[in-house]
Design brief:
Blueprint lengths: L1 H18 L74 E2 L15 H18 L6 E2 L2 E2 L2 H7 L2 H11 L7 E2 L4 E5 L2 E2 L4 H18 L11 E5 L3 H14 L3 H6 L13 H4 L1 H6 L6 E7 L4 H13 L6 E9 L8 H7 L5 E6 L4 H12 L4 E5 L3 E3 L4 H10 L3 E10 L13 E5 L5 E5 L2 H5 L8 E2 L8 E4 H6 L13 H11 L3 E13 L14 H13 L4 H5 L9 H5 L6 H6 L1
Parallel strand pairs: 8-9, 8-11, 9-10, 13-18
Antiparallel strand pairs: 1-6, 2-3, 4-5, 5-7, 11-17, 12-18, 14-15, 16-18
Helix pairs in contact: 16-17
Length: 567
């Protein structure tokens, strides 16, 4: 039966891998008529938040920008601790508009003319960068590939010229601050309602009634002082996202409620809230920025029912940055239910998470990255799916926090995880078969593989199927290995649309990896050798060096005998 399960899974994924294309929506955070959580934890560290008049440009007495304070990770399409991302412009083209007090767009520019002008800009850039093959029928078909190739200057020019920000700017000796929104025009339902909330936030910001980045709006800095611009650029290099802007945004910023009303009104949800088991939330980090780490913690505390959090376990994977030492210890000492596990040597994602598992006492485990923002009601739907079936791994919809502006962007399509024969994870639109089996457009649905960065799992089940492969290094491939085990051992993987968590996608990994091995090959080879039977050769063939014996082509990938015995 195990071999039949593997065969069935692989056949499904062959079809997925052949027909799926990448969509920008693959990068997967007010109140309406719902009952808000009564268990809101309010931080006492108000000095960390921006509390000077907006017109002063967020400058303290020493002339330094204020906000969060000082800082692993490459992923594709929607997850994980090492972080690679696409730039965040949809293939259909995105727009931002200035909104007047009645919520009507100003400027009088015809949308069709705007779209044509934007398309011509893409065409010019495609020709400039040698992407003529992307131009089909007068349009650039794969805008994502083009956008990822742009220099920072061309990308900024594309965004600022085609997607105007607020007209009323905040000026200072260091920079002029604007808010911005970049979004897909084809929004409906709660996604459109959330966008309208963000558009209103632009006007409230102009009236000094909201802080920068509130309700998930993006922040742009223009006309920066040259010294400050150099400081900002160096901070970006350190973390592969704009830490300078992250520090300007409140550590406790507001976000739209991303749920459809069905999520908190259906009987199954309402009848389960008092019966769900609490979870340990495990967050691993290595040299994370202060602002993104603390914002992750605050969003979890403030948007989760207190009785459903057993504890939050921070696992420090041998960080070297000063603010993650004594300062972090002091900051969290008075916050309930938080503890830190510190590792003396760099272990990577898998072994760090296992350290968190060993330190936990709860029956349910929830794993998060250290640069996320949870939205209202994110936790309960995950716990509900695991409570209904302890063999289920439940993952939220992972939405994008732009690495340059920190805008919270919406995923408004239902997507499933897939992979290609290079063992690379990707996203694809949900199949008609899977979609047809759902009871509601916002109900959970199964996925062949998961992104792996954010999920909830029953602890006993996780232990029974082998936890993580401790022979893997740093990051990558562990999500496919766990996905294969889930399906082959009788479990299932579900994506839960009522649970939405934003994640900062990085354009590169800012931290050194092991130099004695190729981690991006080491880990997938271990997965293929243990779990993929004859299908492993479809991956091995893509490693090249076909004139060499197989053992030389694969090289050293460690001892997998224990994992084979587990299987």
């Amino acid at each position: 039966m195990r071999f039949l399960a593997l065969y069935f899974l692989m056949e499904i994924l062959v079809v997925y891998c052949e027909i799926c294309t990448v969509d920008e929506d693959c990068k997967q955070e007010n109140d309406r008529d719902k009952t808000p959580s009564e268990n809101i934890w309010t931080p006492e560290h108000k000095s960390e938040e921006i509390n000077v008049p907006l017109s002063e440009g967020f400058i303290d007495e020493e002339g330094l920008s204020k906000g969060g304070i000082d800082e692993e990770n490459v992923s594709k399409g929607g997850i994980n601790e090492e972080g690679v991302s696409k730039r965040g412009i949809d293939e259909e083209g995105l727009s931002t508009e200035d909104i007047d007090e009645e919520g009507v767009s100003e400027g009088g520019i015809d949308e069709e003319d705007e779209d044509m002008e934007l398309e011509m800009k893409y065409i010019d850039l495609a020709e400039q960068y040698g992407f003529q093959s992307l131009i089909v029928d007068g349009k650039v078909k794969d805008k994502d590939a083009l956008i990822n190739a742009l220099t920072d200057a061309d990308y900024d020019e594309l965004v600022s010229s085609n997607y105007p920000d607020t007209k009323s700017k905040k000026e200072s000796p260091l920079y002029n601050l604007h808010l911005t929104l970049v979004y897909d025009k084809e929004l409906s339902g709660v996604h459109k309602e959330n966008l309208e909330e963000q558009e209103k936030a632009l006007k409230l910001f102009e009236a000094d009634q909201l802080l920068p980045g509130d309700l998930g709006t993006g922040v742009l800095l223009k006309e920066m002082n040259s010294d400050e611009k150099l400081k900002r650029d160096l901070m970006f290099i350190d973390h592969a996202f704009d830490e300078y802007i992250s520090e300007i945004i409140s550590l406790n910023r507001t976000l739209p409620d991303r749920r459809d009303p069905w999520c908190y009104r259906n009987e199954e949800y309402l009848n389960s809230l008092d019966k769900l088991k609490p979870t340990a939330i495990i967050i691993c980090f290595c040299n994370e920025a202060w602002s993104t780490l603390i914002r992750s913690i605050f969003s979890v505390l403030n948007r989760s029912p207190e009785h459903l959090i057993d504890e939050i376990i921070l696992v420090d994977d041998a960080s070297t940055l000063e603010h993650l030492g004594t300062k972090l210890d002091e900051f969290i000492k008075d916050i309930p239910k938080i503890k830190i596990v510190r590792l003396s040597e760099r272990q990577g994602l898998m072994r760090s998470r296992l350290a968190g598992v060993r330190a936990s006492t709860a029956d349910v485990l929830t794993f998060l990255d250290s640069h996320i923002e949870a939205t209202e009601g994110w936790l309960e739907p995950l716990l509900l799916q695991v409570d209904k079936d302890p063999k289920t791994v439940a993952s939220p919809v992972i939405e994008a926090i732009d690495e340059k502006t920190f805008q919270y962007k919406f995923v408004h399509h239902d997507l499933t995880g897939v992979f290609n024969w290079k063992m690379e994870f990707d996203w694809a639109h949900i199949s008609e078969k899977i979609n047809g089996s759902r009871t509601h457009p916002w109900s959970p649905y199964s996925t062949p593989v998961m992104a792996g960065g954010l999920f909830t799992i029953n602890k006993n089940w996780f232990q029974r199927i082998g936890l993580y492969d401790e022979g893997m290094e740093i990051w990558g491939g562990e999500n496919l290995e766990l996905s294969f085990r889930q399906w082959m051992c009788g479990g299932r993987i579900e994506i839960v649309p009522c649970s939405r968590v934003g994640h900062v996608y990085r354009t590169y990994s800012p931290y050194p990896w092991r130099s004695d091995i190729n981690v991006l090959v080491w880990n997938p080879i271990r997965v293929a050798e243990v779990w993929m039977d004859q299908y492993k050769y479809l991956y091995f063939d893509r490693l090249g060096n076909w004139d060499l014996p197989l053992n030389l082509r694969l090289g050293n990938f460690g001892d997998v005998s224990a994992r084979k015995a587990l299987r």
